[in-house]
Design goal:
single chain; 100 residues; mainly alpha; binds iron/sulfur cluster
């Protein structure tokens, strides 16, 4: 995290619980391996997960875990949004199930 796009509201990053975490932790190799899952578990406890997720989706962050979404999950969401849909309802239900 820490990338900034001109004009983007990034004030939410002040409340991010990953601030100070080594960048590699949230930018593991592409895929859905255990490193991604560990980062996603932290995201699920973060108070700015919604803001972080929308930022990454809006600015098409290509790498790493943002707002609990892996690269692959963001790519699926971009495709779904291009057709007026979303994948996030299912993802949120999965996250709630994991957290309970
Ligand atoms: S949702 Fe995850 S990547 Fe985003 S700020 Fe929170 S901990 Fe960091």
């Amino acid at each position: 995290m820490g990338l900034r796009h001109a004009g983007a509201d990034v004030s939410w990053q002040d409340r991010a619980i990953c601030t100070g975490t080594h960048p590699d932790f949230f930018h593991p190799q592409r895929g859905e391996g255990p490193e991604v899952k560990r980062a996603q578990e932290i995201c699920e406890t973060c108070p700015v997960i919604a803001e972080c997720r929308e930022y990454a989706l809006t600015y098409r962050e290509p790498f790493g875990v943002w707002g609990g979404l892996s690269q692959r999950q963001r790519e699926k969401e971009w495709k779904a949004r291009a057709h007026g849909g979303t994948t996030l309802d299912n993802l949120d239900r999965e996250g709630q199930r994991r957290a309970s």
